[in-house]
Every structure is written in structure tokens, then in C-alpha cells.
Amino acid sequence: MYSYCPSWALNWDYRKKGILEEIRHYGADIINLQEVEMEQFYNYFLPELKQDGYAGIYSPKSRAKHMAESERKYVDGCAIFYRTSKFTLIKEHLVEFNQLAMANADGLDHMLNRVMPKDNIGLAALLQTTEAAWENTPADAPFVQQPILVCTAHIHWDPEFCDVKLIQTMMLSNELKTILEKSAQTLKASENVNADANSIQLVLCGDFNSLPDSGVIEFLSTGRVSQDHKDFKDFSYKQCLEKILSCDKPNEFTHSFKLASAYNDEIMPFTNYTFDFKGIIDYIFYAKQTMTPLGLLGPLSSDWLTQNKVIGCPHPHVFSDHFPLLVELEMVPTVSAPINGIIGHR
């Protein structure tokens, strides 16, 4: 796949140091990673980032649970790191798309044969701010223990399975709704916080393997998608999805989150850059009613790519075929307070 990259620059020992150096350089308060092998999380990223004041959670893809230990360590998965001086972890949640597909298949062949075999996952962390998270607020502003649900996801890759990508994303949105409702109960019971599902703010990051004009991004951005959207192909998932999702309007599936994408094609022409494919497939979504982007990390210089004849990545100076996304968000609970940054990377 990457014959255009010298073998020494493809070597993981070389690439992992560059990726870690890049993460450290941006210094985000919350870090979301996808395609991290289990062994690399526990033996490399977690110990290294602990030294910088982070804690982390991780889960491999679902197939890992059926493997021997010697094979399991090579399965990739998702990770979330958070700066412990600014956030406390209340609870972590794993979303397994194959389990959800099986539970909601209702005997539907294409749900069982197309969606269920794909073992992609989403990983969510319910975080709560500490006093240090509000360091940019006025001195007399009250300290707020604001709960935030941070989710990272890795959606199926194959363009031939655009229906699966959309179903996985729709199942994820429904699971996040359930997680938010349960989280509100947890906070009320254990933290004595008067929270409901709407007061927990949501940040959703990930490799959605979907272009901006896809059903996946339409659904996340607008909160709705037509039941006869072309991405469903000729398969009818209606009977399954009606059990899972809201159908507020005829012939539409909806979700209640008010999300906006921090990036668009005017800011970032591509997030994945290989010889065969260049496009936007990675995203950071945020709760647009309570968060405002203050700044973004832009793309690599197109002039630099041209001058150095970079036809695809990885490259000796670019350590992944996916570029990092970084957004600085101002979060408004009771008072206005900026969060230093959220990074999505692989």
C-alpha cells in the first residue's frame, strides 16, 4: 500500500516516536486516537503520556475478546487520554457495533450478513471538569463541575459498505443518547450534581471513513437522514432502525444532538492523504449550542507537499497517512471557560 514511502520511514519504531512527539507538541487537554494496537497503548502511549500528566482509557475492536493473548495484543482499537489536572473520569463506555447489530437485527439478513460481521467500536469517557479547567475564567467566577461526554469512534472503511457506515453511526448516536441519560443518573446519585442528559456536553471525534457529502455526515450534522438515502443502497433497514431511532418526520431518521463539525473542506482539503485516496474522513463534532471553536490546526502546506513531491503519506516527515485535527473550544456552562484543545489523531 505504501510503496512510495521508504521502508525505514514506515517502520513503527520510527513512526511512533514522531506521532508521540506531535501529540506532545500540540499539548491538547483531551486526545482521541484510533487504530492503536493494544500492545502499543499499554506499553508505549499510556506510559509515555502518563509522564505528561494524562490518564487514558482503551478498547480493542470486538474480535480481540475471542483471540489468544499472543494475537490479541496486535488488534487495533480506540483510545482517549485526558489531562488529569483538568478532568476526572467518572465512567467509561464501550460501544460494540456488532453486538448492537445482532441485538437489533430482528432476523433481517443484511443486518446479520453486512453489519454484524464488522467489529468496529466507539469508546466514550464521561469526564468532569476540575477547578484547573477554568483557569481562563475571571477570578470571581464560580467553579463548575461540568460533565462532558467525549467519544471517539472508528467506522468501517470499505466504500462498498456505505450502508454499514451509516447504520454504525446511527447505532452510535442512539447509544450516546442512552449513555447520556444513564450518566445523568450516575452524577445525581454519586456526585450530588443536579444534571440531566441535556446538561452533559458532547464531543464526538473519530475516523468515520465518510466524505462530507455522505449520509453519515449528513446525519450527524443535520440531525436527520432520509429513509431512502442512497447510502442505504437497495437494502431496507427500516424495521430495525425504527426500533432504535426517532422518526419525528415521515420517511426520516433523526437524532436530538445539535452538533457541528469543527472542520470543513474550506479549512482542511483532506484529512487522509495517500497515493490512491485524498479526502476528508476524520472529524471533530461538538455541541454547537454550548461550545464555540476559538482556533483550529490547519492543513499541511500544499506548496510544501508539491515542492517535496509528496504523493502520499506516511512520509519521512509525516508519520501517518491521516493528519491530526486540533480544535480549541470555548465551553459555556454557567460561566464561559475555554478548554485548551481536543485532538483527533491516529
Automatic annotation (TrEMBL):
It comes from Asbolus verrucosus (Desert ironclad beetle). Belongs to the CCR4/nocturin family. This is poly(A)-specific ribonuclease. Keywords: Cytoplasm, Exonuclease, Hydrolase, Leucine-rich repeat, Magnesium, Metal-binding, Nuclease, Nucleus, Repeat, Transcription, Transcription regulation. Its cofactor is Mg(2+). Residues 6-322 form the Endonuclease/exonuclease/phosphatase domain. One of its GO terms (cellular component) is nucleus. The keyword Repeat applies. Its EC number is 3.1.13.4. GO terms for molecular function: metal ion binding; poly(A)-specific ribonuclease activity. The keyword Mitochondrion does not apply. It catalyses: Exonucleolytic cleavage of poly(A) to 5'-AMP. It is found in: Cytoplasm; Nucleus.
